[in-house]
Structures are given as structure tokens and as C-alpha cells.
Design a protein that fits this description.
The structure holds two protein chains of two kinds. Chain A is α/β, with parallel strands linked by helices. Helix content of chain A is 50%, strand content 12%. Chain A contains twelve helices and eight strands. Chain A has an eight-stranded mixed β-sheet with strand order 3-2-4-1-5-6-7-8, with helices on both faces. Chain A is elongated, with a radius of gyration of 20 Å. By secondary structure, chain B is α/β, with parallel strands linked by helices. Chain B folds into three domains: 5-85, SRP54, nucleotide-binding domain (Four Helix Bundle (Hemerythrin (Met), subunit A)); 101-294, Rossmann fold (3-Layer(aba) Sandwich); 303-427, 434 Repressor (Amino-terminal Domain) (Orthogonal Bundle), CATH 1.10.260. Helix content of chain B is 53%, strand content 9%. Chain B contains 20 helices and eight strands. Chain B has helices spanning 5-12, 24-40, 45-59, 70-85, 113-126, 143-154, 167-180, 198-211, 228-238, 256-265, 286-293, 299-309, 312-323, 329-341, 345-350, 355-358, 366-377, 381-385, 392-402, 406-427, and strands at residues 101-107, 131-136, 158-159, 185-190, 215-221, 243-247, 269-272, 282-283. The two termini of chain B are 23 Å apart. Classes of the chains: A alpha/beta, B alpha/beta. Guanosine-5'-triphosphate (GTP) sits between chains A (102, 104-110, 132, 135, 138, 187, 220, 248-249, 251, 274-277, 281) and B (109-110, 140, 192, 194).
Chain lengths: 298, 441
């Protein structure tokens, strides 16, 4: 199923009535009441009060200039402006090294499994690095994904230095002519400074193993996350320099609107989206679909 | 960091001269700020709307207490209302009159169920009970292994079978086994699932019907946004919940989900999870979370945290050292470690009311604290105990060893000496235990 259809399927199951509201909204004339409702829909999608207010006032001022004849189109334009960016991953070198980070339980390991599957399907050789040496059974979890996707697997003991695992993975990938290396990391709250230091070290060591590595540093963000998502992105970005966002669990009823604020403030694009727990539930981010899903009529 | 609500309200009320009763228009203006604060904290939009209406009614016409400014008075009404909405007192788990008590733990993927059940099991074990954990997550790869490993760590047996087994069957067998083996508590760790996944929700219903748990707890992430309402409402309607565990509260999310959930379900948040380490779940204190949601700081938590981190005995020893003027660089390092143990400094300072907003521009650089520690680590024990011997070549070696410049080392030493001088002045003042740390580097 395509991303859009999956979203549709997910959304049709939601019972929050937003969908109907949006359609009636688009058919009524633009006035203060409709704009207020619009704000509500945006906030309920976790866009945040500030960003929602921003979008609404752009529309208000466009309208007063007489340049809005269709609320739906205007709104789409406003939001698209705020999410469009490079999507998907561009392999720039071999091995192509991807580092995956994020707070606990957002879907890092699963997304790595799905990415491995995607590259495997493209006929590429993938190496997975078990960089979460902290959480119980994290190594075993990734190992299962490596088996499922026929990826090479590099691990150390539980409790070992994750930077060493990352280093070995790149070395091993180079020796075995692997095309892609994906480094899993332990989930960590951005407020734990010692754990953020550990991430910096992993990042640094990857650069020593191979010039310009990691080529992608992806922050995994759970679509159910609220305003704290922006803070997460800021701190991770400041620590290691992110290249993009993977927005997971979009198969649920959450919309992940916080990515608008992240894009606005940090210029970080959403590159991939997770739409389920299965191997194939990873897609390139399509801004139009994302906007469509915010105001789905079905 | 957010400007604190109190500060904003002071702005709104600036033009309000004198005392008297809160007027409708002033309250309305104040409520705009309250609304923003709540939305920023992820309280659900509709909950905010209802809440603001209610508080408006309560606040208008209220007399401003002698000791408060109008802004503070409004915050007080808001806060009191938040606290009463979230349930005034902490509610624990009700144990069944006839053991085993069966506790079923449910929630979305990645919300923190497995860690939470391990923490619960550990607490019960420490209380002298005989809990058993049940690995009913056959969905996520290595979920069973994870629970088994945590069970080993906390010394609690885990009932686990094959991944291909039916979770309903696993739970049923586990309860039977618990009864036979005289376990008095059974905790079911179920697979994470979306509340809109009909098949998996039906599976939970079936488990519930089959084992009749005494307590069903929903685990929710403190970082959850507007969806908290839909999640909690659906799990409550479909499965029925008795309470909530709010996890990842050791982060800096404001935790508006707590309010959204109790607002929509009427069920209390019973516990909070505050770390990956297997420390006990903590009781949920509505008053503290209310302050946190409003961005007002949380003095109580701060005090408690400080108390935990700084052992009384160590404090006395330190006092002793200060009095005898033998406070060494080693002691300085210990003291800094204590501070770091209390958690991220920025967050900690943000808990102090009134300080939150002032700290906006002050960047508490934990990197600096770490750098100081690294410098001291690079000294020999002798140097740490007698700073006077740290001269030119030693300074260079220390700088190299800790990856800083000689100027950094010089600065640290200078500040340390200043600090000792300052402490000397304090030693005359009995009862004042901790002199403040000067700003390092
Ligand atoms: N519905 C849904 N579930 C997902 C998605 N991505 C991940 N999950 C589930 O979320 C849960 C946590 O995923 P993990 O991949 O273990 O998350 P993580 O970030 O690696 O977790 P830690 O390593 O423990 O921090 C698992 O149950 C996954 O199956 C998604 O796109 N949709
Ligand atoms: Mg993981």
C-alpha cells in the first residue's frame, strides 16, 4: 500500500471527527470563525500554538489582500511552504554511512530494519551496527532484523563502547565491500548530557573510520510527540548535526505536526516516514501527502 | 526555554492599579496567556478550551489576596484548578483480597511498558512480595528476551514461551502458574499497539476477559502531544483502564498529556517513570505536575532531588572540611559530581520558581562542568590534595591530559583558590551548609 493509502486507511479509523470538520470548513466562506477552526485543526495536529497562529495570520493577510479564493488551496500552500525539502536518502559514497539517533522508543531500530530491507531490495549489501549496547536485548532485536533482511551484522558485548562498534562496522563494511552501513544507537533523552557526549563520540569516531562519515545523521521522531519534539531536534542537532528526520508511527492517528516547527526553526527536512511495524512500512516523505493527511476528507 | 506564565501575567496586570477584585476583562486577558501556556505544554486543545472557561468563571470577582499580585492570584486559581482536575491525592495500586493480584499493562508502541513493569516488579519484591512477570509481547523482535533480562536484573521470575504462541494463552497459563507457585502478584507486559488497530485491540479485550485483571494500567509517554486524548479515551472505552503510568518524566517535556488524559477519562495518573535505570516508579504528585505544565518551576521536586543526591553524611563531612580549611580539589570534584548526579543543570535550575525566566539567557554549560572535572581528573592525587605544587610544567601536562589550554587550567586554579577564600568567610556562619559554587571558567 502506498503511503497515502495507508494514511487514509489509518485516518478513516480515527474517531475524532476532524475529518468532517475540515471538509465543512473548506466549503464555508473564510471568516473569523473558520479561521479559528482552522487554528484548532492545526493545533490538534501538534503543529503548536505559535506555528498555527502563524499560518492562520498569513492566510488572514493574504485574504485581506484579496489573494485567497479557496481556503483549501491557500492552506495547502502555506503548509507545503513549511514542509518541502529534500526527501529520501541520496547515497553519496560507498560505504554510505547512516547514523540513527533519537529518544527512547521512537522506532530507531525498527526504522533501521526497514531501511536495510529497502537497500537489500535494491540489490545492495548492508551492514548493521549494534550500537545500542545499553538496553536489554537491543542487540538481539537488531540481530533479528539483520537476519530478516540478510544484512551483515556487527556487534560487541552488552555494555561495550558503542563508538567501537560503529568503528568496527565501517571497517568491516569496507573489507567486505558493503554498500551501506547503518548504525543503531541507544535511545536517550536529549536532556542527559553524558549520553549526548557519548553520541558525539560515536559521530567523531565514524569520521575517523571514514572521511565524511556519517553521511546521514537521522533523528527518529514519533508522530505522537508533541511540542517537546522541537526541543529534541534542537539538542540533537546542536550535538551532532542532524541531516534529516524520520517520522514514525504515522499509521496511527497522530499527524506529526511538530515537524513544521522543526523545519521552520532548524531547516531540517523530513526524509522518511514510518507507517507500520512491518519490513516494508518505510517510505520517502511526500510533502503533498503529508498535507493531504492533515486535512483528509474521506 | 519558556517565559514563565507568572512573568507573562505580571505583564498583563501591569496596568491594573491597586488591589480589589479581579475584573472580567483582566481575567480574559490573563486567560489568553494561560491558554498559550497550556497549549505549549501539549494539553489537548479541547481540554484547554473547557478548562479556560471554567477557570474564568472561578477567577472573576475573586479578591486578590493581600500577599499576592493579581497575576499571582490568577496563577493560583489556575494551578488549584489543575491540581483538583488531576486528582488531589496519590492513588496507588489496589491489591486483590485473594492473591494473586493480576496487573495488566497496556499502551502504544515505545511508550515504556517493559521498563515500567520491571520497575513495578522490583518494588513489589522489595516490599517482600512474590511478583511474577509475564512476557506477552510476542510481536516486537526480542521483546521476550528483553523482559527476561530485566527480570533477571530485578530478581523476579519471568513467565515466557515461544514467540509464536498466542498472547491470550500465555497470560492465562501465567496466571494459573502464579497461583500454583504462590506468587501474589502477576504483571502482564503486553505488546505495544495503536489504539486504532482493531485486531490487536480485540486481542487485549480477550486477555482482559480471560484473566480478569484487578488493575489495568495504561502506559503513556510524557512527551505525547494532542493525541493523548484519543489514545487514552480509546484504551479506556475499549479495554477499560484503572490508571496511568506517565513515563519519561526525566526529560524536559512539560507533560500536558497528564491533564489531557485525566480530563478525558477521569482516570488518575498513578505513577511516573523517571529514568531508564531500574529505580522504582515514583508517585504522581498533581501539584508538582501542575506547576510543571504551567512552566512555573517545581520547588518540591528540586528539594527532593537535592536531598537524594547529596547524602547527609557527605554533607557533614564537607562541612567538616570547610571548617578545617582542607577542602581539596578532590573535594571540589566530588561536589561537582554530586551536582551532576542531580540531573541536567538547566532543567534543575528551571525548577526554581522565578529563576526559570531569568535563566533564559544564562546558558548553564554542562560542558564546562565536565571540563573542570576532566582537568581535575588529569591531576595526580598529590596535586589534587595540594594545589600549591601545581606549577608550570605540571599545568602543561594537566592541560594536555584533559584536552584544554593552559589558560583553562590557570583559570580553574584561580577560581578554586578564590572559592576557598570565600568558604573561609562562610565557616564563621554556622548552619549555612552549602556555599554557592562560583561560576567556573
Ligand atoms: N505502528 C508503528 N509502530 C512502529 C513504527 N516504527 C516502530 N514501531 C514500533 O515501536 C516500538 C519501538 O520501536 P523500536 O524500533 O524498538 O524503537 P527504538 O527507538 O529503537 O527504541 P529504543 O532502542 O528502546 O530506544 C516497536 O514496537 C516497533 O514495532 C511505525 O512506523 N508504526
Ligand atoms: Mg532500539
Amino acid at each position: 500500500m502506498a503511503f497515502f493509502d495507508r494514511l487514509k486507511a489509518g485516518l478513516s479509523k480515527t474517531r475524532n471527527g476532524l475529518v468532517h470538520r475540515a471538509s465543512s470548513l473548506f466549503s464555508s466562506p473564510i471568516n473569523e470563525a473558520t479561521l479559528e477552526e482552522l487554528e484548532e485543526i492545526l493545533i490538534l495536529s501538534d503543529v503548536g500554538p505559535a506555528c498555527a497562529g502563524d499560518i492562520v495570520s498569513s492566510i488572514r493577510s493574504r485574504q485581506s489582500r484579496g489573494s485567497v479564493n479557496d481556503l483549501r488551496t491557500a492552506l495547502k500552500q502555506e503548509i507545503l511552504k513549511r514542509v518541502t525539502g529534500e526527501s529520501g536518502l541520496l547515497r553519496v559514497d560507498t560505504p554510505f554511512v547512516i547514523m540513527v539517533v533519537g529518544v527512547n522508543g521512537v522506532g530507531k531500530t525498527t526504522s533501521i530494519g526497514k531501511l536495510a530491507r529497502k537497500y537489500h531490495d535494491e540489490g545492495l549489501q548492508v551492514t548493521l551496527a549494534a550500537g545500542d549496547t545499553f538496553r536489554a536485548a537491543a542487540i538481539e532485536q537488531l540481530e533479528i532484523w539483520a537476519q530478516r533482511t540478510q544484512a551483515q551484522f556487527v556487534k560487541h558485548q552488552h555494555g561495550a563502547d558503542p563508538a567501537a562498534v560503529a568503528y568496527d562496522a565501517v571497517m568491516s563494511a569496507q573489507a567486505r565491500k558493503s554498500d551501506v552501513v547503518i548504525v543503531d544507537t541507544a535511545g536517550r533523552l536529549h536532556t542527559k548530557s553524558n549520553l549526548m557526549e557519548e553520541l558525539k563520540k560515536i559521530h567523531r569516531v565514524l569520521g575517523k573510520a571514514m572521511p565524511h562519515a556519517p553521511h546521514e545523521v537521522l533523528l527518529v521522531l514519533d508522530a505522537t510527540t508533541g511540542q517537546n519534539g522541537l526541543q529534541q531536534a534542537k539538542v540533537f542537532h546542536q550535538a551532532i548535526g542532524l541531516t534529516g528526520i524520520v517520522l514514525t508511527k504515522l499509521d496511527g492517528s497522530a499527524k506529526g505536526g511538530i515537524v513544521l516547527a522543526i523545519r521552520e526553526e532548524l531547516k531540517l527536512p523530513v526524509k522518511l516516514v514510518g507507517v507500520g511495524e512491518g519490513m516494508d512500512d518505510l517510505q520517502d516523505f511526500v510533502p503533498e501527502d503529508f498535507v493531504e493527511a492533515l486535512f483528509q476528507e474521506s | 526555554m519558556f517565559e514563565s506564565l507568572t512573568d507573562k501575567l505580571e505583564g498583563v496586570f501591569k496596568r491594573l492599579k491597586g488591589r480589589g477584585l479581579l475584573k472580567e476583562e483582566d481575567v480574559a486577558a490573563a486567560m489568553k496567556e494561560v491558554r498559550m501556556a497550556l497549549l505549549e505544554a501539549d494539553v489537548n486543545f479541547r481540554a484547554v478550551k473547557a478548562f479556560v472557561e471554567k477557570v474564568k468563571e472561578r477567577a472573576v470577582g475573586k479578591e486578590v489576596l493581600e500577599s499576592l499580585t493579581p497575576g499571582q492570584q490568577v496563577v493560583k486559581v489556575v494551578r488549584d484548578e489543575l491540581v483538583s482536575l488531576m486528582g488531589d491525592v496519590h492513588k496507588g495500586i489496589r491489591l486483590a483480597p485473594n492473591p494473586p493480584t493480576v496487573i495488566m499493562v497496556i499502551g502504544l508502541q515505545g511508550s515504556g511498558k517493559t521498563t515500567s513493569v520491571a520497575k513495578m516488579a522490583m518494588t513489589f519484591r522489595k516490599e517482600g512480595r512474590r511478583p511474577m512477570l509475564v512476557a506477552a509481547d510476542t510481536q516486537r523482535p526480542a521483546a521476550i528476551t528483553q523482559l527476561q533480562s530485566l527480570g533477571k536484573t530485578v530478581g523476579v521470575p519471568v513467565h515466557a514461551t515461544q514467540e509464536k504462541d498466542d498472547p491470550v494463552r500465555i497470560c492465562r497459563d501465567a496466571v494459573t502458574r502464579a497461583r500454583n507457585e504462590a506468587h501474589d502478584i502477576v504483571i502482564l507486559d503486553t505488546a505495544g499497539r495503536l489504539q486504532i488497530d482493531t485486531d490487536l485491540m480485540n486481542q487485549l479485550k480477550e486477555i482482559r476477559r480471560d484473566v480478569s485483571p484487578h488493575e489495568v494500567l495504561l502506559v503513556a509517554d510524557a512527551m505525547t502531544g494532542q493525541e493523548a486524548v484519543n489514545i487514552a479515551e480509546t484504551f479506556d472505552k475499549e479495554i477499560g483502564i484503572d490508571g496511568v503510568i506517565l513515563t519519561k518524566m526525566d526529560g524536559d517535556a512539560r507533560g500536558g498529556a497528564a491533564l489531557s488524559i485525566t480530563w478525558v477519562t477521569g482516570k488518575p495518573v498513578k505513577f511516573i517513570g523517571v529514568g531508564e535505570k531500574l529505580d522504582p516508579l515514583e508517585a504522581f504528585h498533581p501539584d508538582r505536575v501542575a506547576s510543571r505544565i504551567l512552566g512555573m518551576g517545581d520547588v518540591l521536586s528540586l528539594i527532593e532531588k537535592a536531598q537524594e543526591a547529596v547524602e547527609e553524611k557527605e554533607a557533614l563531612e564537607l562541612e567538616e572540611k570547610l571548617l578545617s580549611d582542607s577542602f581539596s580539589l578532590e573535594d571540589l570534584r566530588d561536589q561537582m559530581r554530586q551536582i551532576r548526579k542531580m540531573g541536567p543543570l538547566q532543567g534543575l535550575l528551571g525548577m526554581v520558581p522565578g529563576l526559570g525566566s531569568k535563566l533564559k539567557d544564562v546558558n548553564v554549560d554542562e560542558g564546562q562542568l565536565r571540563r573542570v572535572e576532566a582537568i581535575i581528573n588529569s591531576m595526580t592525587p598529590l596535586e589534587r590534595r595540594n594545589h600549591a605544587i601545581i606549577k608550570g610544567s605540571r599545568r602543561r601536562r594537566i592541560a594536555d591530559g584533559s584536552g584544554v589550554t593552559i589558560a583553562d587550567v590557570n583559570r580553574l586554579l584561580k577560581q578554586y583558590i578564590q572559592m576557598r577564600k570565600m568558604m573561609k568567610r562562610f565557616t564563621g556562619m554556622k548552619g549555612k551548609r552549602f556555599p554557592g559554587l562560583p561560576r567556573f571558567m
